[in-house]
Amino acid sequence: MLTIKRVATVVSNYQEDDHSDNKPSFGCGRNCLGSCCLPVSKLPIYLFKKDGDVGLVESCEGVSEISFLHNLLLGQWQDRMNRGLFRYDVTDCQTKIIPGHHGFIAQLNEGRHLKKRPTEFRVDQVLQPFDENKFNFKKIGQEEVLFLFDHSVDHRSHFLANESVENMPSPSPNVVAINVSPIEYGHVLLIPRVLDCFPQRIDHESLRLAMHMAKEAADPFFRLGYNSLGAFATINHLHFQAYYLAAPFPVEKAKRQKIKTVENKGHQCPQGLSVSQLLDYPVRGLVFEGGNTIRDLSDTVANSLVFLQKNNIPFNVLISDCGNKIYLFPQCFAERQALGEVSQEILQAQVNPAVWEISGHIVLKRKVDFDQASEAYAWKLLAEVSLSEERFQEVKACVLNAAAMREVVNAEGINQEDEMVQNFVPTTSCAA
Question: Where is the GDPGP1-like N-terminal domain (predicted)?
């Protein structure tokens, strides 16, 4: 069994508390997200339109569909900041763009390195059972919740400022809560069906939910990320992370090459869906986009992610451009770290390269690393994450097969599609 000793990022003010399991049948006195409190609570609820639905958001504020979720999330997040619920003020953190071709973004965030508890994580198992005794999101307080997020039933988006949870479409609601150790302004957690206690295991429904959130935010500078176990997920309870960064991620600017594909025999791939491979970037990855609906894209990518999970391949996912692009990074950093194959220079910086770091937003915990940060250092750090070229080609073939596709190559083994694409051309006109 491969394990590594490290410190877990604290995402909730209740993460380090010890609580008794002997709780009353209704209400534990903490106003938590467990079945003892949540079903009888009243919380803000945002109901989104499903695929194909039309119409504006309905709310007492009369804000347009384009900006409402944006304003709601940031307004609620700022309220929690004013109430002192965060472990530090992320707006005080220094940020700079590292000079160079890629424009990696470095942030000095010493707060994420304080008051952590040492833990051990399995890094050789992507799928691990949910453990009720370890910290999970049912234990956080409801004051950390911004709103619940679910689909509407009447083809319109709605916002209900104070609604009984028992009136939700699902008996196990999707929760949007603050990350008390934020990386950026508006850093939140999306926790699908919190009461169902899913481990950190992505599926078709949860990925589609995250993409709906990206679409409803209607802002290309709002991205969602997912880390599997073995790829620096720190809590084994299904969740996505999201925040605003009013600049393109370096990976969004990286060049990529479209992969010419055909449908697997006996399978059907959604029309208009395409896959590209990143070029001249330290982490090898794939970009999925297109399709006629959110479901077309999400189900295709989910098929690939389910394959990676079942085959024990750690990965990170970035949902970009209002849900129109999904970046997939199979990775091996934690495994290499456990095997002692990562350089001491990289380990001493104590950077855990998860989805945000891989995308080019590198959170540094020591001032010396921030002051001396260079493009060469950022490249070296991220290159430790990437699969080798040979291994990546093997995984890519399996991922495409799971997505009902097959790569077309010529006799020399070269992909026949030579179209070069420049990333980060948002398909929406909204901006932060």
Answer: 69-243
